[in-house]
Amino acid sequence: xxxxxxxxxxxxxKEIPKDETSYNAQTLMRAGFVDKVGAGIYTxxxxxxxxxxxxxxxxREEINAVGGQEVLxxxxxxxxxxxxxxxWENFDALFKLAGSDDKEYAMGATHEEIVTPLAQKFTLSYxxxxxxxxxxxxxxxxxxxAKAGLLRGREFSMKDLYSFxxxxxxxxxxxxxxxxxxxxxxxxLGLGEITYxxxxxxxxxxxxxxxxxxxxxxxxxxxxxxxxCHSAINKEIIEEQKDCPECGGHDFKEEKAIEVGNIxxxxxxxxxxFGFQYKDQLGEVGDIIMGCYGMGPSxxxxxxxxxxxxxxxxxxxxNIAPFSVHLISLKQNEEAEKIYQNLISSGFEVLYDDxxxxxxxxxxxxxxxIGCPVRLVLxxxxxxxxxxxxxxxxxxxxEIVGIGDLLTHLKNKL
Length: 414
Hints:
Elements: H1 23-30, E1 34-38, E2 41-44, H2 46-65, E3 68-70, E4 76-78, H3 79-84, E5 95-98, E6 104-107, H4 112-121, E7 131-140, E8 155-165, H5 168-188, E9 195-201, E10 208-215, E11 221-226, E12 231-234, H6 235-238, E13 252-267, E14 277-279, E15 285-287, E16 289-295, H7 297-307, E17 309-310, E18 313-314, E19 325-329, H8 334-345, E20 350-353, H9 360-370, E21 374-378, H10 380-384, E22 387-392, E23 398-402, H11 406-413
Parallel strand pairs: 3-7, 9-12, 19-20, 19-21
Antiparallel strand pairs: 1-2, 4-6, 5-6, 7-8, 8-16, 9-10, 10-13, 11-12, 11-13, 13-16, 14-15, 17-18, 21-22, 22-23
C-alpha cells in the first residue's frame, strides 16, 4: 500500500493526553492510531484501522476454518426480543432509546436475541444442523466507569460466534474445535505463550465458562496459572476449586491478566424462550442446543500495546503492524523515492517518512512511537556509499547494507 507521511492527515503528539491514565490509550493517541471522542469512545484513525483490520482478518481466517459463516446483524435491536429472554429489565448495561415510531430499542450489547430467531427461520429438522454463525460488529455497553482505554469501552468491536446443535455431545465436539481456533488466533497475534485458558464461573449457563486471559501487569483480573498445564483459574472460583479442572494439578501462580476472549455452553437458555426446536429422524421434537464464543478485536489491540512496548513506544508484532517497513529519508532525493517504489512492487507494506520540515531526531522518535517492525534510514552519508541503514524495532543494533542487497536482507528479517 502507498502511504507517505506527508500525505497522512494525522500527526503524532508529544504530550501525554491528560485525561487518559492507561498506557494503551495514551500511546495509541500519541502515535496517531486512535482519537478519543468521549469516555470509552474512540475513532480509529488510518494507522489504527489498518491494525484492527489485520486482527479481524486473522480472526476471520481461523473462525472460517471451523465452519463459521459470517453475517452482519443490526446494532439497533427492538425491545421485544429482549423481553422474550427477560433481559430488557435485567441487563443493566443496555443503552436504551425511543424511536420515532413510539417503540423502544436497545443498542446491541450482545446478539443472542437477534441470532436465535434468525437461525430459527432456516432450521426445520436435524438435517439442517449443526451450523455456526458469526459476525464482527460494534457493540455498545453502558459501562458505569469506562476505563483502561480500549480494554473497557462503551463502544467496542466484537467477534461473536454462535453455534447450533442437536445434542450436548455435538456441542462439546464443536466447542473443542473453537477452543483450539482461539489458541491459533492468539498465537498468530503474538499472544500465544502468555494467554491461558481460564476456568470461570458459568453463571446461569453451566458449571464453568472459559475465558482466555493474557498475562499483563495492566490487567484487571487475577488468575491462578496451573504450573502443570497451559490453563488457569479465575480468582472468583479459586476458593471452591483447589485443583486444576484441566489436569488435576494443584500448584498455581497468581498473575494479573486481561480477558481477551470467552466461550460458553449456552444449552437451551436462549432457544427455549424463542421456542427454537427441531425434528429428529423419528419426527420427535427437541430443543436446539447452543454455544456462544466471544472475542474483542479492539480490546486485543489495546492488550497488544500493553504487552509489546518499551520506553519509546509500541513494538508491533510483525503480522499485525500497520506497515512492515518504515522508510525514513533524511533529505528528499530521487533514490529514496526509487527505494520506496521498489519495496512496494516487491510486496512490502511501507510507511515512507518523506517530510522535509521535520528533523532527523523527530523522525526517529516518531518511528519508535509508531512501532513498525523495520526502520530503514537513507541519509546523505549512506547514500554517498550506495548503502542504507536497517534497524529492527525490537533490537538496538543497526546494520548498514548495500542498497542492491536491501530486498534480500528484508526478506530474511520479515
